[in-house]
Amino acid sequence: MTAYIDDDIPGRHGRTATTEADPREVGRVRTEYSPAHDGDPDPGEIVWTWVPFEENDGRGKDRPVLVVAREAAGTLLAVQLSSKRHDDDREWVAIGSGPWDRSGRDSWVDVDRVLRLHEEGMRREACALDRGRFNLVRNRLHERYGWN
Q1: For the range 31-34, what are the long-range contacts, defined as Cβ-Cβ under 8 Å and sequence gap of 24 or more?
Q2: CATH of residue 42
Q3: Model pTM greater than 0.85?
Q4: Which member of 64, 101, 113, 122 lies 3.0 to 4.6 Å from 81 by CB, making a disulfide possible if both were Cys?
Q5: Cβ atoms of residues 61 and 90 within 8 Å
Q6: How many CB atoms neighbour CB 139 within 10 A?
Q7: What is the domain range of residue 81?
Q8: Is residue 1 part of a domain?
């Protein structure tokens, strides 16, 4: 694993910082399943990037996200994963376990929080999510935001 100095963490600062995107304000979104194990983030893949805490106070953590769409500007839209079961008001889609979690824990995807990331802002490509589980998330995003 690569060691990073705090300011060098991909996706944390500058023009390649991972940011929160308002899913109703991003315009037309076409989700797609197009993973390619090439080191670049592609829709359908789980990648690791810096994700700011919702308080937007400069804190955050390196975590896995599922890339769901590529935007015309070259940025990507993603939803964060968590291995912790949540009983809050947010909507979480269960996707089970996979190689993105070394401990083999079940994971959930937060469809209420959409992130915008840059190719240069990811730390590493973890794996492709299978099409069936990707479609669970995709269908929920379509129902919730009208994305294709």
Answers
A1: 31/68, 31/69, 31/138, 31/141, 31/142, 31/147, 31/148, 32/69, 32/70, 33/131, 33/134, 33/135, 33/138
A2: 2.30.30.110
A3: yes
A4: 64
A5: no
A6: 13
A7: 6-145
A8: no
For the chain, how big is the Rg over CA atoms in Å? 14
CA distances from 115 to 5, 20, 105 (A): 23, 4, 23
Determine contact, residues 67/48, Cβ cutoff 8 Å: no
Count of domains in the chain?
Answer: 1
| Cβ contact 140:97 at 8 Å | no
- DSSP helix/strand/coil, 110: strand
Cα–Cα distances in angstroms (integers) from residue 27 to residues 22, 112, 146, 147, in the given order: 10, 16, 10, 9
94 beta partners: 108
pLDDT tens column, 89-124: 778 899 999 988 889 999 999 999 999 998 887 776
Instruction: Please enumerate in sequence order all residues whose Cβ is within 8 A of that of 74, keeping only pairs 6 or more positions apart, or say none.
Output: 118, 119
